[in-house]
Specification:
By secondary structure, the protein is of the alpha/beta class. The protein has seven helices and eight strands, in the order βαβαβββαβαβαβαα. The protein has a five-stranded mixed barrel with strand order 3-7-6-4-8, surrounded by five helices.
Length: 237
Amino acid sequence: MSLNFNDEQSLPLALDAILVPQGAEWQAVSRGLSQINSSKPVVLPIPIGFQAVSRELKKWQQPPQKVLLMGLCGSLSSRYRVGDVVVYKSCIQASNGEEILCDRVLSNQVYRSLASRAALVTGLSTEIPICTAKEKLRLGNLYQADVVDMEGFAVLSAWKSKQVATAIIRVVSDDTLYDLPNLTSAITESGKLRAFPLATSFLRQPLAAARLIRGSLRGLKILQQVAVNQIELNSCC
């Protein structure tokens, strides 16, 4: 089954909520939200990682009906560089290859609102950070995916049977040219970043850490701008 992103009318988003991984990503989107004085959807922080997100969303007795997931992602292809904005058509779970489509109508509206600024992609969700350029390229070829995150599939899967319309916007913060610091030990089971292991990882790989910081700062700046765009569009409803 494929998504056709060329046959829908441009309509108001009417979002109920924006979900963002907690920490710097949530702060960036919240800063964007604070610039809007009109009506706006709630911005909710979620944990980092598949298992933590799955556990958190299962607690929600009444999930919102229209949701936008925002955050950063890593590129799995030389086509996508740091700062590129992507809208997911679907997301694949790396552990079993299952693929879930994003909501076609909502995703189309989000994509159209970004005009030529965004690319339509297939996302891949992994349970641990993918830190080497070689592994990114391997996964991209294996799953025919364009970008990687740790939460997209969990959000789509948690609400698959509850008819929650979900779209995903990500900004690329790291590409396939260089390795990243190994961040696996810095993420807790509950989906939070641990400061000491993170600092240790950065000290062990200072050049990789510097690239990651630069890419993240650039990605966060663009993420904030995109959030303003989406919230302003939503407030026009």
